[in-house]
TrEMBL record:
This is SET domain-containing protein. PROSITE patterns: SET. It holds the Pfam family SET. It comes from Sinanodonta woodiana (Chinese pond mussel). Residues 1-119 form the SET domain. InterPro entries: KMT5A, SET_dom, SET_dom_sf. SUPFAM superfamilies: SET domain (SSF82199). The lineage of its organism: Eukaryota, Metazoa, Spiralia, Lophotrochozoa, Mollusca.
Length: 137
């Protein structure tokens, strides 16, 4: 299992907890990069569609608004759970740029781990059968 993100206080259902942050690239560029990663590495890449266009957020690259040597954005550290997610992702336009925001599906208590369904099937990061222990729900 990855590092994980835990609630430092009670969070009400429907609140934005963070975004999935990184460098916005095309879906095509994202697939090329994704396929270069070894099977046992989680590439921290988020593929999504917004207004009919396909995009990718590369969470491995430094963005212009964060110093990754001092601060890691929280969205990419959230673990996967297909069976028990308590947050969900929704694309939004922020400052005329497509972004992915993460919202709570239910009330989340102090110390509770945040988890979302990565939404992938038949893929190296979707296996909950023990093949990838870092993704156990």
């Amino acid at each position: 299992m990855g590092k994980g993100v835990f609630a430092k206080e009670f969070i009400k259902k429907g609140e934005v907890v963070c975004d999935y942050h990184g460098d916005l690239i095309s879906h095509k560029e994202g697939m090329i990069l994704y396929n270069q990663y070894p099977e046992d590495i989680n590439p921290f890449m988020f593929f999504f569609e917004f207004n009919g266009a396909k995009h990718c957020i590369d969470g491995n690259k430094n963005c212009n608004c964060h110093d990754f040597s001092k601060d890691q954005t929280k969205g990419r550290l959230i673990n996967h759970s297909k069976s028990h997610p308590n947050i969900f992702c929704k694309p939004r336009l922020l400052d005329n740029v497509p972004r992915v925001l993460l919202y709570t599906k239910c009330d989340i208590g102090l110390g509770e781990e945040l988890k979302f369904d990565f939404g992938v099937a038949n893929d190296r990061i979707s296996r909950e059968d023990g093949a990838n222990a870092f993704l156990e729900a």
